[in-house]
Amino acid sequence: MQFSFRMPVAVQILLCIAKFDGVFKTTSTFLASSVNINPVIIRKTLGQLKAAGLVEVAAGVGGAKLVKEPREITLQEIFNAVEEDEDLFHIQENPNPKCPVGRNIQQVLGNKLSVVKNHMLDDFAKITLADLLNDINTAEESRQ
Amino acid sequence: MQFSFRMPVAVQILLCIAKFDGVFKTTSTFLASSVNINPVIIRKTLGQLKAAGLVEVAAGVGGAKLVKEPREITLQEIFNAVEEDEDLFHIQENPNPKCPVGRNIQQVLGNKLSVVKNHMLDDFAKITLADLLNDINTAEESRQ
DNA sequence: CTCATTGTAATAACATGATTTACAATGAGT
DNA sequence: ACTCATTGTAAATCATGTTATTACAATGAG
Predict the structure, then answer these.
(1) What is the mean pLDDT of residues A93-107?
(2) Rounded to 5 degrees, what are φ and ψ at B100?
(3) Phi/psi of residue A23, each to 5°?
(4) Per residue, what are the HEC states of B43-85?
(5) CB burial class (10 A; 0-12, 13-18, 19+) of residue B98?
(6) Mean of the per-residue pLDDT values for chain B?
(7) B133, closest residue in chain A (CA to CA)
(8) A102 touches chain B (CB under 8 A)
(9) B35-68 pLDDT, tens per residue?
(10) CA–CA distance, B13 with A88 (Å, rounded to integer)
């Protein structure tokens, strides 16, 4: 069980937009070929990133640009842009109300897990697009 | 996108075994009625918990018991018992190798995300079954 | 030997994510 | 105003994973 492609795809989109800014027009087709995914997914994801205030997309003419500096864009913002705001885990919705465990599990376990999720979001907040761009460039250099 | 029922179900199973120890025989049918889930799921989950050394199950006669004290059982052990050891997120497996972003995204983003996952596991390690039992009891008392 | 129960396989039902096709709306360039 | 590549979006389909269900051999105390 793991999270879907969504956040990683969004990250790759943003990295490409940053990396190729001024060099290539970053259309959905162009981005789709980097990620190797369907252009419609790219357009949908770009829409979410636009709604989150991270990019602006030129309808008609095509291409996308970052609205903020890479070091001001965190993984947390990207995650929140493309994922629902929901609990980390499914907890059974209809446990037995006659059982002392069943009738309290949602609240008790839910409380603990929401703390864990908040820590995860805090971790995401510490990782910026600039960090990732930097790592990409370092990795590129080490390929000679 | 969220994790499945598996870990929460395993937690509820263990809580019931601890709570009803010596009072009821905790068969898969009994546990299934607390969680309100199919007994086969319970049996399968109990099998995973047994393999992880957390419970012993009496085949034939029925019923399950904890092998360790509740305060020695952590959410991390439970999580690892029922979930695959895999990355937190899917990262596109076939990105474009001609793109400097595509050919490095797995390594770069994967590194960052594995740190986050380890933090999450550390958080899980700090939560014990005894903590949850205690919270259940407190919640029960406040119902009067 | 009996019988409730576990262990397990196989299948179906269901939900969700990803793919693909299609097409109206957009807007810079001519 | 027209063109045309592109976006935005809906709808249908495919793929995958999770949960539910049925079935039955294996288990082991009484």
Answers:
(1) 91
(2) -60, -30
(3) -100, -50
(4) HHHHHHHHHCCCEEECCCCCCEEECCCHHHCEHHHHHHHHCCC
(5) exposed
(6) 93
(7) A101
(8) yes
(9) 999 999 999 999 999 999 999 998 878 889 999 9
(10) 19
| A103 CA from D18 C1′ (Å) | 24
CA distance A49 to A12: 12
Could A2 and B88 be called an inter-chain contact, meaning their C-beta atoms sit closer than 8 Å? yes
**How is A93-141 classified by DSSP, letter by letter?**
SS--TTSTTTTTHHHHHHHHHHHHHHHHHHHHHT-BHHHHHHHHHHHHH
**A residues 20-49 closer than 8 Å to B (CB):** 33-37
Can you give the pLDDT at residue A60?
A: 77
> Which single residue is written with the structure tokens 């903020």?
A68
* Domain ranges for chain A: 6-141
How near does any CA of chain B get to the CA of A40, in Å? Answer: 16
| SS3 assignment, position A89 | strand
B78, B7 contact by CB (below 8 A) = yes
Q: What is the 3-state composition of chain B as percent helix, strand, coil, each rounded to the nearest 5?
A: 55, 5, 40
CA atoms within 13 A on the CB side of A113: 20
Cross-chain residue pair A35–B75, CB shorter than 8 Å: no
Q: Which residue has the tokens 């970052």?
A: A66
Tell the CATH topology of A6-141: Arc Repressor Mutant, subunit A (1.10.10)
Compute φ and ψ for B87, nearest 5 degrees.
Answer: -65, 155
Return the H-helix or E-strand segment holding A28.
helix A28-35
